Amino acid sequence: MRPQYGNALRFDRVLTVYFYTSNADKLLQAKLMFMRHGYALRHYTGRREPYDEDYSLETRQLLDRAIEQVNAEFGVRSIFFVEDTSLRIEALSEGAADYPGLAVKEWFSSASFEALDRELRGKGNNRRVVVKSDIALYLPALSRKIFFHGETEGAIATSPPEFSPSAQYPWLTPDTFNGWFIPQGATKRLGEMEFEESLSFDFRAKSLSALVSRLEELNSALNIAPNFYVVRRPASPPVAEQQLLFKELLMLEDKPSQVLVVIGNKCAGKTTLSDYLIARDDVMVFEASSVLRSLASEADEQVETADDAYRFLCAHGLDCVAHTIAKYIERSPAILNVVTGLRTVEEVSLLVERFPRARIVFVDADVRTRFERHVRRARDKDVKAFVDFEKQDEQQARFGVLRVPTEIATDVVRNDGTLELYKERIDSLIATMTDKDEAPPQSRGHKSELHRTLNALRAIGSAATCAAISEKAAELGTPVRKYNTNRALKAVPEFAERVKRSEQLLSYKLTARGEALLQLLEKVDHFQSDEDRT
Asked: This protein's superkingdom (predicted)?
């Protein structure tokens, strides 16, 4: 399930929505679902359960009472929602009454798989179940609550779970009913699925998606032009509300915004990094592929493959996605704005131009490790063999960024060990962005061989042989051996065009994209020099 931003990031005015829950796993799942649709989700922080759960009530009654209790006890007048999960085990339910129903959490804590399995076999082995998720949304100006429902039918597995829990997505685990539950249409338990795979089957993902769709409608109305509505009375908020708003604006002004541009090959860990950061407050993630699909949809064009994407970018501007993302970041209230999946040098260059303090982090992992992750996730069923995976890498490299990731990166984060080690490395990276006592990225000290070669080629101003490029580099005070110029330029065909005429030596000519790369390298070097001086 790919992120679909729709109009979310284009809206100037967006409702602030809170999720009232004491369940950290539910909160993380909801944050990820919201962010994948272009919305940030806030949450209530308390020392105890935000509301009592009376399981004698029907679902909507329980949620309705929960909202009333939250409002009464905490004086909340924000837009917020609550969620409850229920379970119907068909063989143990009587008529319309679900068992264990809303008490699924308490029931599961004392249940054992073996005991349930014996009970089901004694009742004809009817293993059918329905897992339900219900949400109630509270809008201060609306007298009624808005309800959303999601459910998934399936069956209880015939054997206890033996898989390991997901360290990244803790609700995908053998330790809840997700470890016993095989959704209809699936061949494995919900808890052992990869996150993206689970979205089509997850009951809570369904109700959250319905909620986000309604918020899309509400935000659309919030952004409608003044000529489409009338104001029946003055809309000035009470003095107390004005003071609170002013205080919030001051708090935002005191927090400088940070931009983190994340690049890397497929399955290196870009999404893992952004999903890990989403769990924090004041983080917004912009996924380049989703923005590209939105732009293509507006242009009434299809973008299904890498070739489609490349043609679209060539036709509409190699930095068109970055232009759109830059506008989103400029309006973003987040303290940390993370951009993932940019593929052209022109895109990265534009963001560094607009946000000079942006950090470019290259998430690196061995190709074999990445292929193993690809096989495990089973996302692209057309790419099964390692050689096909390498071909896909080459397709992506043609966009430009992945030809030169270490050249343009201000930081490199390896993702070749455990998830916990990767998280520690991410934490260290973020610490260098937010903690003045942490060391800044190290200066390169000297230009790379490719950088020196491209500089020499630019100085020549026309097609030149490897010998001429080597001589010019030496004149510029940054010598490069003749053989090494050929090796460096041959690896980056997008940035230096090979010119081979009969009876003439091989020459290279700097392309427009090569000029763009040089400009980006100068920006990155300037950033690192500034960091060294601070």
From this structure: Bacteria
Q: What is the pLDDT of residues 17-52, one digit of tens each?
A: 999 988 999 999 999 999 988 888 988 765 556 566
* Residue 382 neighbours by CB distance under 10 Å: 6
As a whole number of angstroms, the distance between CA 37 and CA 31 comes to 10
Q: Rounded mean pLDDT of 125-140? A: 96
On whether the CB atoms of residues 449 and 488 are closer than 8 A, the answer is yes
**How far from 75 is each of 20, 50, 67, 72, 512, CA to CA, in Å?**
13, 12, 11, 6, 59
Per-residue burial over 282-298, b = 16 or more CB atoms within 10 Å of its CB, e = otherwise: bbbbbbbbbbbbbbbee
253 pLDDT band, cuts 50/70/90, is very low
Architecture of domain 449-533: Orthogonal Bundle (1.10)
For the record, the structure tokens of 28 come out as 């993380």
Interval 265-304: pLDDT, tens: 999 999 999 999 998 888 999 999 999 998 998 899 999 8
Structure tokens, 95: 């008529």
- Residue 154 main-chain phi, psi, to 5 deg: 175, -150
Nearest residue to 286 via CA among 36, 17, 33: 36
What pLDDT is attached to residue 245?
44
Mean pLDDT on 417-446: 77
* b/e 421-440 (16+ beta carbons within 10 angstroms → b): ebeebbeebbebbeeeeeeb
Q: Give residue 243's pLDDT.
A: 47
Chain segment 438-488, per-residue pLDDT in tens: 555 555 556 889 999 999 999 999 999 999 999 999 999 989 999 999 999
pLDDT at 227: 86
Length of the chain: 534
Q: What is the mean pLDDT of residues 383-400?
A: 92
Integer Cα distance of 307 and 174 in angstroms: 40
Neighbouring residues of 486: CB distance < 8 A, sequence distance ≥ 6 = 466, 506
For 401-479, where are the alpha helices, taking DSSP H only? 405-408, 419-434, 449-460, 466-475
Question: Which pair of tokens denotes residue 372?
Answer: 């193993």
The CATH architecture that domain 242-434 belongs to is 3-Layer(aba) Sandwich (3.40)
Contact 275, 168 (CB under 8 A): yes
List, by residue range, all CATH 3.40.50.300 domains of the chain. Answer: 242-434
CATH of region 8-220: 3.90.950.10
Q: 100-107 long-range CB contacts below 8 Å, 24 or more apart? A: 101/55, 102/53, 102/55, 102/59, 102/62, 103/55, 104/177
This prediction's pTM: 0.81
Q: Which amino acid is at 258?
A: Q
Pairing type for strands 496-499 and 181-183 reads unpaired
SS3 483: helix
Where do the CATH 1.10.10.10 domains begin and end in the chain?
Answer: 449-533
